[in-house]
Amino acid sequence: MKNLSLSIIILAAGKGTRMQSQTPKVLHKICGREMLYYSIKESLKLSDDVSIVVGFEAQKIESKMKEYFGNTITFLEQDLKNYPGTGGALKNYHPKYQKILVLNGDMPLIQAEELEKLLDTQSDIAMSVLESPNTYGYGRVIIKNGEVLEIIEEKDANAEILNLSTLNGGIYCFNKSILENYLPKLRNNNAQKEYYLTDIIFLAKKDSKKITPVYGQINNFKGINDKLDLAKAEEILANRIKEYWLKKGVRMRLIDTIYIEDSVTFEGECILENGVSIYGDSKIINSHIKAHSIIESSIIENSDIGPLAHLRPQSILRKTHIGNFVEVKKSTLNGVKAGHLSYIGDSEIDEGTNVGAGFITCNYDGKNKHSTKIGKNVFIGSDTQVVSPICIEDDCIIGAGSTVRQDIKKGELFLTKGKEIVKKGFFYEFFKKKSIE
Ligand code: UD1
Ligand code: MG
Question: Which of 231, 247, 342, 364 is the most buried (most CB within 10 A)?
Fold first, then answer.
């Protein structure tokens, strides 16, 4: 798919004031990844010259994106003080190629196939146009007799212009000469006192340049300007992710109630029941995740989980049964049964071991976390605690109600048994009541 004579620049220097957040807009996450990640990923499918314009919190954005893409992308810093606006963002840009695709960085739903449609129009400028009654936040495109005349920003528009439902999608393909000629001619005499990239359209049209509108779907071009846009975009992306995995054979019950992040993967036959959420780089292989369970960055293979279980990061479960109200964190369980009400943290538990209801690893001493190792075929009775660090070897029995503070050797029984007290009729004496036979 790579079109080797195309440069792409993504605008990501703005603060995103409408988000009402200290986090720069393009670092807000949808489905587990920062929104800028998605447009870079799609851009790299088309070009080997992808640049990002940064400004507000430039370092933060640069280092985060380098974690994903290394040195395959280039960063450019905008002089936000002297040249604010989407036009100012391109001021010191020196593209490698003659054809340049400009993308706003707040459009995480864009896909490479959609971008490709702007590349082959044989015009000086191709621009994305949307037809939608949901006009809020978009510049209006003035088109007469099929000719694009200009873009008027919402904040600069009068009532008549605001009524138009032909919107600027925010993606443009320019010939290099267009940017060279018109960027220096942009002025900031508008409502926002910014250098609008969109003014290039008016200037180029005056010189009879060929401008082609390329119509797109609003679901692919959705701009994120506030938290409402963010929530709506996340819903669209979440549906795309689920559709992808459904087509790959994952069974989902009541799909609208399920949430799967972009970095999650499935293999083999998996079943997800209603209300399941799976986060981070979780990998689910031939497993059944029952209703309302939460799985974070864990590997689950040939296992059944839940209902109402919580697997926290770095849990690795194989051939394991986890039941309701069981929390597992940073633990490796192989062939284990933990059916009810437990906390298993920083542990390694081996094949054939049965964890009774109400088992707790006391892995934190107030200062440090400690680990627990439990061998094969251990039978752990209900309502027991192990105080870590601790090791229980193979073939042990831990009696119900025990608190284990010492290592247990292979084959041993361990049992805490306090002195039992039975007082006949104590209830009636204590509450000064009579027993009714
Ligand atoms: C922009 C368009 C609007 C279009 C809409 C589509 C302009 C003037 N307006 O408006 O016509 O309908 O996108 O979503 O272009 N940015 C910079 N430097 C800046 C300012 C912004 O890099 O100085 C970046 C932002 O980080 C953002 C992108 O450019 O990723 C768009 O900026 P934003 O303020 O969201 O523009 P809109 O008001 O959405
Ligand atoms: Mg925007």
Answer: 342
Q: Is 180 helix (H, G, I), strand (E, B) or coil?
A: helix
Task: Kindly state if the Cβ of 201 falls inside 6 Å of ligand 1.
Answer: no
pLDDT per residue, tens digit, the chain (437 aa), is 676 699 999 999 998 999 999 999 999 999 999 999 999 999 999 999 999 999 999 999 999 999 999 999 999 999 999 999 999 999 999 999 999 999 999 999 999 999 999 998 899 999 999 999 999 999 999 999 989 999 999 999 999 999 999 999 999 999 999 999 999 999 999 999 999 999 999 999 999 999 999 999 989 999 999 999 999 999 999 999 999 999 999 999 999 999 999 999 999 999 999 999 999 999 999 999 999 999 999 999 999 999 999 999 999 999 999 999 999 999 999 999 999 999 999 999 999 999 999 999 999 999 999 999 999 999 999 999 999 999 999 999 999 999 999 999 999 999 998 899 999 999 999 999 998 87
Pocket flag, ligand 1, residue 76 (CB < 6 Å): no
> Is 173 contained in some domain?
yes
Bridge partners of 304, per DSSP, are 288, 321
In the numeric block, the tokens 């969109």 are attached to: 198
Contact 113, 171 (CB under 8 A): no
3-state DSSP call for residue 255?
helix
Cα–ligand 1 centroid distance for 67 (angstroms) = 25
Q: How far is the CA of 261 from the centre of ligand 2 (A)?
A: 24
Do 274 and 179 share a structural domain?
no
Q: How far is CA 236 from CA 15, 137, 210, 259, 385, in A?
A: 24, 18, 34, 12, 45
Task: Let me know if residue 428 belongs to a domain.
Answer: no
The residue contributing the CA closest to ligand 1 atom 11 is: 139
| Any domain includes 437 | no
Counted domains in the chain: 2
> Which CATH number is 369's domain given?
2.160.10.10
267 with 215, same domain? no
DSSP string of 385-403, one letter each residue: EEESSEEE-SS-EE-TT-E
**Residue 10's domain is classified under what CATH number?**
3.90.550.10
Q: Which two tokens stand for residue 172?
A: 């443009």
Q: Which amino acid, residue 148?
A: V
Tokens encoding 404: 């284990």
Rounded-to-integer distance, Cα 185 and Cα 194, Å: 13
For residues 140 and 366, give the distance between their C-alpha atoms in angstroms, rounded to a whole number: 59
| Residue keyed to tokens 């873009």 | 151
- How far is ligand 1, taken at its centre, from the CA of residue 96, in Å? 23
